[in-house]
């Protein structure tokens, strides 16, 4: 009875736990939308931490620029005896001194402003990287969607090639077609199978590319969900240029850099005025006690920071030139990506308004003619290849439109 009782407990426990175990074993991976992938990239991409650290370093430098100089404390201890007094012994002597540097207000002011501008530079560099990362992730996301579409086309082509092989086998067996037709069908199936393997490998590579931008956050069972070419909006080039010059992180970064360089030049000019050090002290000697107070400064007689001022002036000129270069380069990139987007729109329009329907109709006619015995297998295979190539090119045109839109968003600093 003991054995049966234990066996009953085991069966009962297995009955209770089985659904849980099965659910855990068959739980599918998560499906990510584009927005979820973009959020994941901002959280997991390794380079995000670098720019965050750069910003924290700039903020630390800003905190240091606001600090006041620390006072100096001098303590001297010793022993002495009065001169001219026979038999006098040594006694303790000491002195205390304190000094407080007083920084020239103008130098301190411009040092703080320069440090604050450098924080702005670091922040805009971080924003520009996030903009670049967003564009790269979008392209990788759409490339994976394209790979999935091509894989689906390859699978359907494989099914069609297998059906065609079966039909050719039947025709050859019945004597309606020569054996060469069966060989052609077999060759076509082999070629389609090779394309299917290539499409499967492309899926792996595309997912690995996307996952590298996500810091490896995608699991092996995780998938993405979305559609290609959802954008059809037309943009005005002049408006895009105006908005980019007003808000793009590259422009804002160079403006902050120029601002920081100007403050650095003003700081160097203010540094020609020396800082003061206020000093006070107490001296306790054997036969007297004295107090002192005074000021000290470095007198700028031989050198008045001509070198530092010249270097700061050159830095300001360089920052101004780099701002103009950034505006020129950004204008070129916007015009280029705008044109690429327009071309992608037109190409997609050609497919949707004509090529797809024509390729489908040509394949339908070729299939009907082959079934009626009015054309041979070679004509049908040619029609299938044309339809397959047209569909693949259509998906590639969709990808090119989405990729062009992502790049346009990147160079303009964002689209509305």
Structure characterization notes:
There is one protein chain. This protein is of the alpha+beta class and 416 residues long. It has a single domain (37-84, 91-412), classed as Outer membrane efflux proteins (OEP). It is 71% helix and 10% strand. The protein is built from nine helices and six strands, in the order H-E-H-H-E-E-H-H-E-H-H-E-E-H-H. The protein has helices at residues 2-26, 34-44, 46-65, 105-174, 179-213, 237-247, 249-270, 306-371, 377-412; strands spanning 31-32, 72-80, 91-102, 223-224, 276-284, 289-297. It has a four-stranded antiparallel sheet with strand order 2-3-5-6, with no helix packed on it. The protein has a two-stranded parallel ribbon with strand order 1-4. Strand 5 and strand 6 form a beta hairpin. Helix 2 (34-44) crosses helix 4 (105-174), helix 3 (46-65) runs antiparallel to helix 4 and helix 4 (105-174) runs antiparallel to helix 5. It starts with a helix and ends with a helix. Residues 1-26 have low confidence and may be disordered.
Brief summary:
By secondary structure, the protein is α+β, with helices and mostly antiparallel strands.
Describe the secondary structure blueprint for this structure.
Elements: H1 2-26, E1 31-32, H2 34-44, H3 46-65, E2 72-80, E3 91-102, H4 105-174, H5 179-213, E4 223-224, H6 237-247, H7 249-270, E5 276-284, E6 289-297, H8 306-371, H9 377-412
Parallel strand pairs: 1-4
Antiparallel strand pairs: 2-3, 3-5, 5-6
Helix pairs in contact: 2-4, 3-4, 4-5, 4-7, 4-9, 6-8, 7-8, 8-9
């Amino acid at each position: 009875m003991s054995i049966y009782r234990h066996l009953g407990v085991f069966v009962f426990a297995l009955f209770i736990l089985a659904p849980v175990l099965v659910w855990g074993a068959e739980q599918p991976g998560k499906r990510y939308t584009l927005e979820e992938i973009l959020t994941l990239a901002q959280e997991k991409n390794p380079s995000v931490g670098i720019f965050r650290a750069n910003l924290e370093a700039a903020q630390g430098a800003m905190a240091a620029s606001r600090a006041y100089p620390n006072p100096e404390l001098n303590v001297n201890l010793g022993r002495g005896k009065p001169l001219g007094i026979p038999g006098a012994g040594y006694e303790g002597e000491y002195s205390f001194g304190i000094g407080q540097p007083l920084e020239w207000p103008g130098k301190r002011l411009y040092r703080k402003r320069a440090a604050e501008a450098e924080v702005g530079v670091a922040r805009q560099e971080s924003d520009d990287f996030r903009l670049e990362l967003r564009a790269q992730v979008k392209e990788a996301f759409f490339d994976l969607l394209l790979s999935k579409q091509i894989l689906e086309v390859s699978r359907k082509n494989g099914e069609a090639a297998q059906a065609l092989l079966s039909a050719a086998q039947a025709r050859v067996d019945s004597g309606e077609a020569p054996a060469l037709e069966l060989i052609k069908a077999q060759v076509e199936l082999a070629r389609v199978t090779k394309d299917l393997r290539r499409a499967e490998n492309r899926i792996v590579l595309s997912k690995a590319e996307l996952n590298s931008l996500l810091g490896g956050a995608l699991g092996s069972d995780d998938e993405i969900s979305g559609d290609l070419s959802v954008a059809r909006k037309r943009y005005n080039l002049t408006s895009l240029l105006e908005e980019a010059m007003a808000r793009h992180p590259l422009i804002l970064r160079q403006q902050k850099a120029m601002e920081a360089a100007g403050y650095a030049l003003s700081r160097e000019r203010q540094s020609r005025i020396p800082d003061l050090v206020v000093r006070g002290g107490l001296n306790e000697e054997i036969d007297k006690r004295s107090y002192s107070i005074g000021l000290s400064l470095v007198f700028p007689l031989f050198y008045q920071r001509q070198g530092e001022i010249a270097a700061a002036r050159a830095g300001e000129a360089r920052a101004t030139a780099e701002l103009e270069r950034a505006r020129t380069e950004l204008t070129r990139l916007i015009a280029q990506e705008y044109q690429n987007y327009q071309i992608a729109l037109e190409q997609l329009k050609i497919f949707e308004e004509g090529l797809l329907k024509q390729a489908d109709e040509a394949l339908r006619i070729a299939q009907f003619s082959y079934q009626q015995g009015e054309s041979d297998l070679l004509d049908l295979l040619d029609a299938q290849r044309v339809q397959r190539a047209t569909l693949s090119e259509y998906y590639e045109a969709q990808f090119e439109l989405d990729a062009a839109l992502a790049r346009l968003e990147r160079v303009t600093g964002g689209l509305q």
